[in-house]
Design brief:
With about 450 residues, the chain is of the alpha/beta class. It has two domains: about 170 residues, Aspartate Aminotransferase, domain 1, CATH 3.90.1150.10; about 260 residues, Aspartate Aminotransferase, domain 2 (3-Layer(aba) Sandwich), CATH 3.40.640. Helices cover about 40% and strands about 15% of the residues. It has 14 helices and 16 strands. Bound molecules: pyridoxal-5'-phosphate. The site of pyridoxal-5'-phosphate has 16 residues, from helix 5. Belongs to the class-III pyridoxal-phosphate-dependent aminotransferase family. Keywords: Pyridoxal phosphate. InterPro entries: Aminotrans_3, Aminotrans_3_PPA_site, PyrdxlP-dep_Trfase, PyrdxlP-dep_Trfase_major, PyrdxlP-dep_Trfase_small. It comes from Streptomyces wadayamensis.
């Protein structure tokens, strides 16, 4: 896209007001320097100085159809003109249609949709549904996970960010899901790691008391914690364990869903159907905040004659739902899911494997579809991470240098601890990917300087 004329004066004013008044997520307020964004289109965004960036982060992994899709923008405008808002206890066209389109795409009998404003609220409500449905309280969640930053969601989260708000996590028990590259157990291959992880989960349940466990929650493919695709058989094994003990199986597809994994839902890749599935982000590419829980027949039945004890003023907001309807139609019309699957397999994976051969800082390449991670290391032999796993948001020098090098070359990377994730919009083109990988190649030479 043609860039508008640079306008550094407006950029400076935007930045000044931000620095004076906006309190940013996960940040030491005086140590950050947010880029002032002037606009965005497709896979790119630009600042007021005339710099354009190819977005390999999809925002926070949510712009699955890219920025400013004209059909979604028009649908939001049209809905605003027709009925900009309405309370949740009514049947509203945009809401009904969004629920129908989502239910048609979710696996199995996940046919009822509870709408929220985002992922964390979806997790909160899924857990509440599971607790009421079973009459049990404990929820098992994995270390190396991210489920959001509200009360229950942050306690279920298995990364260091929960420390500040964790009161010993009443009702939450954590376990080690499979991750061969950094398993804390002994395992030589994926099959052993899978077997180990299932045995560990089952013994955790035995010690906690199966009659006390309401739910197991897992990201189908843990995203923020490192895009760890599960070994074959793992999720089906968890499904069987849940069935054996009457435990509700919750899959969190907030990041992995709606095309990201090259399928409508990552669960489709593993042929597994949870009892509850949370979603957000890609459902409408984040054009208006929206998330939700897709509910199986069995759990919907619990709330058929007794009220569900939960609700939100903006549940199923018409603008958000209209954006979802338009997004899902665009995804069908433009073959967005197929694009993510095809370019993921034909371009992203081979390019990343080529980078891994050239750069000693790349320890492991993981992923599927448009959902990939490079695990950056100091030492390929020991897998020692490029930065230690103590990151609670502080800047770490080698990753900051890598990030700056990428940005200098017009690539906006996603960085978390010692990893860079390659998560462009699912609408990305082959040419854009090639451009991004050329920049990534150069930026990785900066990471290489920190290897042994
Ligand atoms: N669950 C998963 C798997 C996520 O990746 C995220 C956000 O990244 C959330 C939940 C929380 O979503 P939100 O930030 O919309 O509350």
């Amino acid at each position: 896209p043609g860039l508008p004329e640079p306008d550094p004066q407006t950029g400076a004013a935007v930045k000044a007001a931000d620095r004076a008044h906006v309190f940013h997520s996960w940040s030491a307020q005086d140590l950050i320097d947010p880029l002032a964004v002037a606009g965005a289109q497709g896979s790119y965004f630009w600042d007021y100085e005339g710099n354009r960036f190819l977005d390999f982060s999809s925002g926070l992994v949510f712009t699955n159809i890219g920025y400013q899709h004209p059909k979604v923008v028009a649908a939001i405008q049209e809905q605003a003109g027709k009925l900009a808002t309405f309370a949740p206890a009514f049947a509203v066209e945009a809401r009904s249609e969004a629920a129908r389109l989502i239910a048609e795409r979710t696996p199995g009998d996940l046919d009822k949709i509870f709408f929220t404003n985002g992922g964390a609220e979806a997790v909160e409500n899924a857990v509440r549904m599971a607790r009421v449905h079973t009459g049990r309280t404990k929820v098992l969640s994995a270390y190396r996970s991210y489920h959001g930053s509200t009360a229950a969601a942050i306690n279920l989260t298995g990364d260091p960010r929960r420390w500040a708000s964790d009161n010993g996590s009443a009702g939450v028990v954590r376990f080690w899901a499979p991750f061969l590259y950094r398993t804390p157990f002994y395992a030589e291959n994926e099959a052993q790691e899978c077997e180990r992880a299932l045995a560990h989960l089952e013994s955790t349940i035995a010690y906690e008391g199966p009659q006390a466990v309401a739910a197991i929650i897992l990201e189908t493919i843990p995203g923020t914690a490192g895009i760890m695709t599960p070994p074959p058989g793992y999720l089906q094994g968890v499904r069987e364990i849940c069935d054996r003990y009457g435990i509700v199986f919750i899959l969190d597809e907030v990041m992995a869903g709606f095309g990201r994994a090259g399928t409508w839902f990552a669960a489709d890749l593993y042929d597994v159907v949870p009892d509850l599935m949370t979603f957000a982000k890609g459902v409408n590419s984040g054009y208006v905040p929206l998330g939700g829980v897709a509910i199986s027949g069995k759990i919907a039945e619990t709330f058929a004659k007794r009220p569900y004890p939960g609700g939100l003023t903006y549940s199923g907001h018409p603008l958000a739902c209209a954006a979802a309807v338009a997004t899902l139609r665009v995804m069908e019309e433009e073959g967005v899911v197929e694009n993510a699957a095809r370019l993921g397999a034909e371009v992203v994976e081979p390019e990343l494997r080529r980078l891994a051969e050239r750069h000693p800082s790349v320890g492991e390449v993981r992923g599927v579809g448009m959902f990939w991670a490079l695990d950056l290391v100091k030492d390929r032999e020991t897998h020692e991470p490029l930065v230690p796993y103590n990151a609670t948001g502080e800047v770490n020098a080698p990753m900051a240098a890598f990030g700056a090098a990428a940005k200098k070359r017009g690539l906006w990377p996603f960085i978390n601890m010692n990893r860079t994730h390659v998560v462009p919009p699912c609408t990305v083109t082959e040419e854009e990917l090639k451009e991004g990988f050329a920049a990534l190649d150069e930026a990785l030479t900066v990471a290489d300087e920190h290897t042994v």
